[in-house]
Amino acid sequence: MRLRGRRILVTGGASGIGRATVGLFVREGARVAALDRDEPALLRAAASHDGGPGLATIVADVSDEHAVERAVHRAVAALDGLDGIVNAAGVDLVRPFDETSADDWGRLMSVNLLGTVRVCRAALPAMRAAGGGTIVNIASGAGLRPLEGRTAYCSSKAALVMFSKALALELARHEIRVNAVCPGVIDTPMFRASYESSDDPAAELERIMDRFAIKRVGKPTDVAHAALFLSSDESAHITGSALAVDGGRAFH
Fold this sequence. Notes:
This protein is α/β, with parallel strands linked by helices. The protein has a single domain (about 5-245), classed as NAD(P)-binding Rossmann-like Domain (Rossmann fold). Helices cover about 45% and strands about 15% of the residues. The protein is built from eight helices and seven strands; from the N terminus they run βαβαβαβαβαβαααβ. It has helices at about 15-25, 40-50, 65-80, 100-130, 150-170, 190-195, 200-210, 220-230; strands at about 5-10, 30-35, 55-60, 85, 135-140, 175-185, 240-245. A seven-stranded parallel beta sheet has the order 3-2-1-4-5-6-7, with helices on both faces. Strand 1, helix 1 (about 15-25) and strand 2 form a beta-alpha-beta unit. The radius of gyration is 17 Å and the shape is globular.
């Protein structure tokens, strides 16, 4: 029960890392508002967590500023306040730079970077009113070390890492800690889609795993536990960090 009494909003809560984070945080005693744009998947995920009255579901797209404002207000009302956020909503794109359009760039930046910015800005009054809290932004190991064919994705995640560090400086006086988690390959629908569409998925997966010191695909719970640590009192003196949960790729 490391999060007993905490009120936490998790974006991207319908699948992958977000879904695993919602389930873990509920089990650790938090009251959670799970936000996602995919309502059927969100409801299925919520039913699997059995969070009871301590789990609220909110449908919104983080690329829509007004929808985010309404969603955060609903989360604050449902949880009777807010003192934690995990921003796990994100999108991927594998495409050569010269084939990546301005619309592609705009979409990745709008979700991966500005989606988090929108949520944090909308939630800030409630977190100040709570007297402090934690923000954990799920960035990517691709924001620490680049990947070929992912210029837009790497840029959006690197920007998210620096946003987290800059925001940590600004919000420290409000007792709000901000950290980023940088996953490597994690067994999520988004990751599977990145190699299963290739001509030889098995060979492509082997090529991907050659980048890593730990030769296995990570689990969503690997990242959720990192988010738990950074949301708990165990990390009370940590802010502005970018924690690589990437099987050793960032240094390998």
